[in-house]
Amino acid sequence: MPGDLHTHTTFSDGSTPVEKMPFLARCAGMTHLAVSDHDSMRGVRYAYAHPVQEGVHLIPAVELTAYDYDRAHRVHLLCYWPDDCAPLADFCDMMAERRRTAMLQSCRELEEICPQFRTEEALELAKDSGTLFKAHVMRVLWQYGLADGMYNDVYRSLFGLKPVRGRVLHTPRYEPVDDVLALIKASRGVAVLAHPSVYHSMELARELIGMGRLDGVEIDHPRNTPEDKAELLRLARANDLLLTGGTDYHGLNTVTPRPVGAFATRDEEIVRLETLAKARKMSNRKAQ
Predict the structure, then answer these.
(1) CATH T-level assignment (fold) for domain 3-84+188-287
(2) What is the reported pLDDT for 285?
(3) Polymerase/histidinol phosphatase N-terminal domain: which residues (predicted)?
């Protein structure tokens, strides 16, 4: 019963509708799937409403964006089996509005320098997400031959951070890591640090693990380095943490396309994840 526990759909910045995902997972031999769209309750609600599709068990999940202000970089936290609760929904609505505001400003500036670009076309691509992502803007440019792919030189010139800030980059404000972890706890979700290599989060990983703030770490991810994976494995085993894996699937909206199931979570870890989630739900019922 392996599972791909990190995937994205048109509910955020992926290109595949959520209804297609269980079929793709089944074809890849997955028995479990987590649609973990960015700062969105839509995947969580879809999984609760459709617990099994195509013989695949859907795990409610969301990938929450936070910021490590001590080290000045973004952090992604995977939250599994959260309650569909007001605090989490409010956070996702807030991030959707912040992201939309930032991206609309980027679009206004892009229209001034690129006459072929129209914001309305990006918004049409984004209609399932309820907000607007850079991926939607890049898809418009790419389809007209105005970009060299999704996230290559043109993307860096427009939205890059280093070595030169992109021409139309506007970034939403992110909440601190501590606050987002507290939100996951309040929603009774299971907290897993996503792909620590991507945002150079190993120092943060050591800190959070030492403080007992994480339930697990994502190890089997296409962009984790071998060195980071080896250290994460040692830390996870020493602290009895969950070991998760996922493709970080985005469909077309990626530099290197990978099919659902290319990276996965082992059977025994899925059992541990679900056992922990059920225990938290049961504990809350007893407390009430």
Answers:
(1) TIM Barrel (3.20.20)
(2) 60
(3) 3-68
